[in-house]
Fold this sequence. Notes:
The protein is of the alpha/beta class. Helix content is 40%, strand content 21%.
Amino acid sequence: xxxxxxxxxxxGVGPATIEKLKIAGVLSVEALAVTPTRTLVEIADxxxxxxxxxxxxxxxxxxxxxxxxxxxxxxxxxxxxxxxGSKAIDSLLGKGIESQALTELIxxxxxxxxxxxxxxxxxxxxxxxxxxxxxxxLFIDTEGTFRPERVIAIAQGLGLNPDEVLGNIIYARxxxxxxxxxxxxxxxxxxxxxxxxxxxxxxxxxHFRSEYPGREALAPRQQKLNRHIHQLLRMADIYNLAVIxxxxxxxxxxxxxxxxxxxxxxxxxxxxxTYRIWLRKSKESRRVAKIIDSPLHPESEGIFAIxxxxxxxxxxxxx
Length: 319
Ligand code: ADP
Ligand code: MG
C-alpha cells in the first residue's frame, strides 16, 4: 500500500501555512498538488515563487507526472455509476451518473432537476449491484428547495429504511455565492472522511446570477464561477465521486436562428461540465432528458416520469 502523506510532509509548508490551507479547505497533499498557484497565493498569503515551489514539492511527493494511456484506462476502470431510477436517463450516459465527472442538469423551472437530485441522494446509497455506490451524498442547496419528505418517499419506494437514508445525506444551505464557495471548500474535508460518493450543487448558478447582474459584472462573475467549478472537478477526480450541478436556462432574445434558449453560465459551465443533460417538460408527469456535449456519447433523448416515489421510466407508470 502507498504511504499516506500529510501536509506537513511537504517541503516548505510550515504550521502557519497549514493553518491557512486548512481554513481554505485544502486538507490533503492531493488537494494541495492540484490547487492552482494563483489560488495558493491568495488563500495562504504566499509569494508566487513560494507557492509554485510548494506545488512542485507536493506533486513530487505524490509522484504526479505523465502517465501512459494504460494508466488512464485503469483509473477509468474505477469509475462508478449511480442510477437515476430511470433506465431511459441512465442509458443516455451508459449506466447512470458517473463518478470522476461533473454532470450538469439543465432545464427551466419545474423540469425535474431538483427531483433528480433527491433521487440520486438515495440512489448513491444503494449497493453496487443495485445501481448505487454504497456511499453518502452531500447536498449544497442554494434555492432552499431540498425536501427530506421527498427523500423519505423515494427511499420507501426502493424498500430502504428512510431514517438511515436521511442520515446519509449531508446537507447545507448556501446563502450567497461566497458562502456557496466556502461550503465547497469545506466539502473537501467532509467527502474524504465520510465516504461521500455524490456531491450536488442545486443550483450552481442562482446566487451568481443575482449577485452579478449586468455586463460589467460578467468577467468577475465568470472568474469566480470558474474557480468554483474547478474545485468541484478536482473533488470528483481525487475522491472518485460524482458531481451533479443544476443550471438554469437563459433566453437570448437576439438570436435569429436556432434555439433562443441556452444554458446559463456561459463557457465556464460548458467547458467545465463533463456531461450536460437538458431536461424539458412533456405531458403531465413526463419529462424528456437529452444529452448534449458528451466526449463519449452520441446525442440522444430519453423519456422519464416524476412520481411520488421518485423518478421512473414511463413504462413503469401505474395507470
Ligand atoms: P426544477 O427543475 O425547477 O428543480 P423540480 O425538480 O422541483 O423542478 O420538479 C418539480 C416538479 O416535480 C413539479 O412540477 C411536480 O410535477 C413534480 N413533483 C414534485 N413533487 C412531486 C411528488 N411528490 N409527486 C409527484 N411529482 C412531484
Ligand atoms: Mg429546482
